[in-house]
Amino acid sequence: MELRQIEFFVTVAEELHFGRAARRLHVVQPAVSQQIRQLERGLRVKLFDRSTRRVCLTEAGEALLPAARAVLLTMQETELIAARYASSRGTSLRIATSLRSRARLRLAADTLMQSRPGLTVHLVDVSDRTRLDLVRTGALDAAMVDHPVPPAPGLMLHRLRWRPVLAALPDSCPLAERESVGVEALGELPMRQIPSAFHLTLVELIVSARRRLGLTSIPLRYAKSVREALDGIARHGDSWTAVQYECADVARFPGICLRALSVDGMASQSGMVTRSTPSDQVLALLDSCTSSFERAG
């Protein structure tokens, strides 16, 4: 068993799609399939059930996933701490970036470095699943997030650009008459879940919020894309899904209405997570990011 095989396993488990996993890993799809087969042979268990329509974890895959993530977290933390010392501790910041915020974060970092000679800001790509743990341990100084983040001990979320998460409902649904929809109002209406970090985190928040209210979890139906989920909602009128504010235009679908979704602990669409007591350098970067995001509108 190799670290690269573990990385491939975790990525496929998060995406539930070999093609998307390959794009994240910057390799061709057959390479992903080959590494997964080799890992399965080495472990002597089947990790995924594959069909032409979907990929899902087996019982063994579900059981092994937390341990595999822990291995990757330790590897990432080791590399980041070593890199910090190699580049002179205290004169550099290491920030986990994200796809949507990369351009604005780069602008903010360049502005800060110009005003503080000798300071270097490194933008790094790490898994959505591990970035908060890396901030908590100090391997990262901060991390950008573009999806809901539950409250976490020792961490602080700084909102940079607030946008509501939207519930895409069939226009025949009674909930469509409301301005916003809370988790308690969803009842047993199934949610069409998409394999993305945004949806995975949101489902965890909804389940947790409903549990606190003494309610059961919502049923899930799976879709490969936002478009497929919306098509199913409009066609059958018996489910809903969540979309990010920036995808509102895509979600304006015949037979669909969009309403703000209220979930306890939901974060802004774009934010920076730091430790509870960030350094002066991190606070300076945060100020620079705030200006950059405000200019972006």
Task: Detail the topology: elements first, then pairings.
Blueprint: H1 3-15, H2 18-25, H3 29-43, E1 48-50, E2 55-57, H4 59-86, E3 92-96, H5 102-115, E4 120-124, H6 131-137, E5 142-145, E6 155-161, E7 166-170, E8 180-182, E9 191-193, H7 197-212, E10 220-222, H8 226-236, E11 241-243, E12 256-262, E13 270-275, H9 280-296
Parallel strand pairs: 3-4, 3-5, 8-12, 9-10
Antiparallel strand pairs: 1-2, 5-13, 6-13, 7-11, 7-12
Helix pairs in contact: 1-2, 1-3, 1-4, 2-3, 5-9
Short note summarizing the structure:
With 297 residues, the chain is α/β, with parallel strands linked by helices. The protein is built from 9 helices and 13 strands.
How would you characterize this protein structure?
With 297 residues, the protein is an alpha/beta fold. It has three domains: 3-73, Arc Repressor Mutant, subunit A; 87-162 and 268-296, Periplasmic binding protein-like II (D-Maltodextrin-Binding Protein, domain 2, 3-Layer(aba) Sandwich); 166-262, D-Maltodextrin-Binding Protein, domain 2 (3-Layer(aba) Sandwich). Helix content is 43%, strand content 19%. The chain has nine helices and 13 strands. The protein has helices at residues 3-15, 18-25, 29-43, 59-86, 102-115, 131-137, 197-212, 226-236, 280-296, and strands at residues 48-50, 55-57, 92-96, 120-124, 142-145, 155-161, 166-170, 180-182, 191-193, 220-222, 241-243, 256-262, 270-275. The strands form four sheets. Strands 4-3-5-13-6 form a five-stranded mixed sheet, sandwiched between helices. The longest helix has 28 residues, at 59-86. It is globular. The N and C termini lie far apart (47 Å).
